[in-house]
Amino acid sequence: MPELPEVEMARMLVQDRLNGKRVASLQVKDHKMLTNGSERTMREAFIGRSVGDAHRHGKNLLVRIGDDHLFIHLGMSGSLHLVDDRETTPHERLRLGLDEGALVLDDPRRFGRFGLYHRLEDLLTERDLGPDALTMSDKVFVSQMAGRRGSIKPLLLDQSLIAGVGNLYADETLFQEHLHPATKADTIPEANMARLGKRVRKVLEASISVRTEFSRLPEGFLLRDRREGAACPRCSTELAAIRIGGRTTILCPECQSLRTKP
Ligand SMILES: [Zn+2]
User: Fold this and answer.
1) Is 189 left (phi over 0), alpha (psi -120 to 50) or beta?
2) Which ipTM was obtained for this model?
3) Tell me, what's the pLDDT at 134?
4) What average pLDDT does this structure show over 133-153?
């Protein structure tokens, strides 16, 4: 499933390869995935205009085209591809034709979304998104989490508090901070909470730097072999699987004991 690092890679692709190019055509191939605007308004806004900067907020991508933005969310299985004029992909849902070649959103499971937004702020309000996980400061993270009653892991996954932390990265972050995922957020001291925010960013940055190939992550990362029964990279205890907030959670029962003071 595409997480923030995959979306950041998609953003870099668009930024590097499409910036300054002119949009020649636009085809919506799956209207169920169109969430804001219509094919007609998108055509009117984008065709004949130049592609500007690509921006990412959490797992959302916004590409400036003319005076508006093309919004793309990759959902469970979406990916962006640059193709030749006559080339198609197996599950093409949106095609943005350029003077030469095209940008295609391919999505077999169709949980992705796309559309038109005039401003970034409109997207943040409409989708109720908190600050971006990769660019937030420790202070912002602490203030978003301060006084929350619930367990820390579901709070990390709540996109309205912090946008962009998915299940795998929440597990990695909590593992590296020796925190049990069910730890009540309001029992975590402020200094430790600030460290947790920093860790969120570091984990996401590490994944981006290896282009999300987990086998290339440094030794000691849970994501290199994150599964029940695998050996904890720190203490070799067998990793356990539990469910928290409806999500499968992998943790080390030894390193992340609930009784350990954070
Ligand atoms: Zn361990």
Assistant:
1) beta
2) 0.99
3) 97
4) 96
pLDDT at 9: 96
Distance from residue 178's CA to the centre of ligand 1 (Å): 9
Q: Name the token pair of 102.
A: 């095209």
CATH of domain 4-126: 3.20.190.10
Query: In CATH terms, are 4-126 and 138-251 the same topology?
Result: no
Amino acid sitting at position 74:
L
Q: For the chain, give every domain's residue range.
A: 4-126, 138-251
What is the whole-number distance in angstroms between the Cα of residue 213 and the centre of ligand 1? 23
| 177 belongs to the catalytic site | no
Q: Is 2 a catalytic residue?
A: yes
138-251 maps to CATH 1.10.8.50 = yes
- Give the tens place of pLDDT for each residue, 61-80: 999 999 999 999 999 999 99
- State which H helix or E strand residue 248 sits in: strand 247-251
Please confirm, yes or no, whether 3 is among the known catalytic residues. Answer: yes
Between the CA of 111 and the centroid of ligand 1 the distance, in Å, is 35
The arithmetic mean of pLDDT across residues 166-178, rounded, is 97
pLDDT of residue 1: 87
pLDDT of residue 259: 65
| Residue 66 Ramachandran class (φ > 0 left, ψ -120 to 50 alpha, else beta) | left
- Which three-class secondary structure string do you get for 76-100? CCCEEEEECCCCCCCCEEEEEEECC
